[in-house]
């Protein structure tokens, strides 16, 4: 950016969900003022979903809103959080309770960034990938089933296509229902129980995608029991999650505590 003539200031936050907080937003406002950011400045969110949500929230609120660019570097961020304009931070009462809709001016998706992502984080992100197959596109789901092992090896031309497909599904859902009046809620498939697991187990115990994977197993079970999903479809979903090396159970998370966390 400097070579291109931009004046650049940097601010970093520690890795982990704890950084997605009002405290770190305050830290970034301080940094923004220190670096002299004005209404024409641009924030670049370089990192995973935590950085994207936090930096997006700061961009949405600093000086009543400035532009920002998402440069996602995790699977979750590439296929999900960098697209769609949901920004926010957590409160101790729960995740994403404070936030705004603020669309990035640009998303720079380069899957080569995944080459340094730890294996567990990579697999965790694949839960969100499976989600798109379940909620939107049966052919895509079958492609994931057929290429699961290949996809788990890391960045590849196939993975690039998979990321692009996920982004276009998310963009289509958000185009139809940006403010989650109805349809956009399908993107939360598995997230009701998933978010409760993250909270009950303590943030960081289960990675986001791992918790969502357990939540999708539960949602599939309920869909079969109460909403007419076929048993076979339920089995396909759970098998693909397992093939992706994802958990489908959260031992230690008592149902009573999860119910309370769901609210
Ligand atoms: N805004 C949305 O629509 C949306 C959608 C889905 C998830 N989210 C949010 O995203 C967050 C989860 O995102 P995440 O899974 O990316 O977690 P994360 O941002 O915590 O990143 C996971 C870990 O990987 C590290 N990391 C990221 N990229 C790396 C790379 N290329 N190489 C090495 N290490 C790297 C990070 O430092 C961190 O330790 C949650 O807070 C969730 O609520 C938001």
Considering the chains and any ligands shown, give keywords for the structure:
Rossmann fold; 10 helices; three-stranded parallel sheet; two-stranded antiparallel sheet; binds nicotinamide-adenine-dinucleotide; Dehydroquinate synthase-like, alpha domain; 52% helix; 263 residues; globular; amino-acid biosynthesis; NAD; metal-binding; mainly alpha
Task: Write the SSE topology.
Elements (H helix, E strand, L loop, with lengths): L21 H13 L7 E6 L1 H13 L5 E6 L2 H7 L4 E6 L2 E8 L4 E2 L11 H17 L2 H15 L4 H20 L14 H11 L6 H19 L4 H13 L11 H8 L1
Parallel strand pairs: 1-2, 2-5
Antiparallel strand pairs: 3-4
The protein binds nicotinamide-adenine-dinucleotide.
Nicotinamide-adenine-dinucleotide binds next to helix 2, helix 3 and strand 4.
InterPro entries: Dehydroquinate_synthase, DHQ_synth_AroB, DHQS/DOIS_N, DHQS_C
Keywords: Amino-acid biosynthesis, Aromatic amino acid biosynthesis, Lyase, Metal-binding, NAD, Nucleotide-binding, Zinc
GO cellular component, one term: cytoplasm
């Amino acid at each position: 950016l400097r070579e291109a003539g931009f004046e650049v200031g940097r601010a970093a936050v520690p890795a982990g969900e704890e950084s997605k907080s009002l405290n770190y937003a305050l830290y970034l406002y301080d940094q923004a003022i220190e670096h002299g950011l004005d209404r024409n400045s641009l924030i670049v969110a370089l990192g995973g979903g935590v950085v994207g949500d936090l930096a997006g929230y700061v961009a949405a609120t600093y000086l009543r809103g400035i532009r920002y660019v998402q440069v996602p570097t995790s699977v979750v961020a590439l296929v999900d959080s960098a697209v769609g304009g949901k920004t926010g931070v957590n409160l101790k009462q729960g995740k994403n309770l404070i936030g705004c809709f603020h669309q990035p001016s640009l998303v720079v998706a380069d899957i080569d960034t995944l080459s340094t992502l730890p294996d567990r984080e990579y697999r965790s992100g694949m839960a969100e990938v499976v989600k798109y197959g379940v909620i939107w596109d049966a052919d895509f789901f079958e492609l994931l089933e057929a290429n699961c092992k290949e996809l788990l090896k890391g960045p590849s031309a196939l993975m690039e296509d998979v990321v692009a497909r996920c982004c276009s599904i998310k963009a289509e859902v958000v185009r139809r229902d940006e403010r989650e009046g109805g349809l956009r809620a399908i993107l939360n498939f598995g997230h009701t129980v998933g978010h409760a697991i993250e909270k009950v187990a303590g943030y960081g115990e289960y990675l986001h995608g791992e918790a969502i994977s357990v939540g999708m197993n539960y949602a599939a079970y309920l869909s079969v029991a109460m909403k007419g999903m076929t048993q076979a479809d339920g089995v396909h979903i759970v098998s693909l999650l397992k093939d992706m090396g994802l958990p489908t159970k959260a031992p230690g998370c008592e149902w009573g505590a999860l119910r309370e966390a769901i609210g």
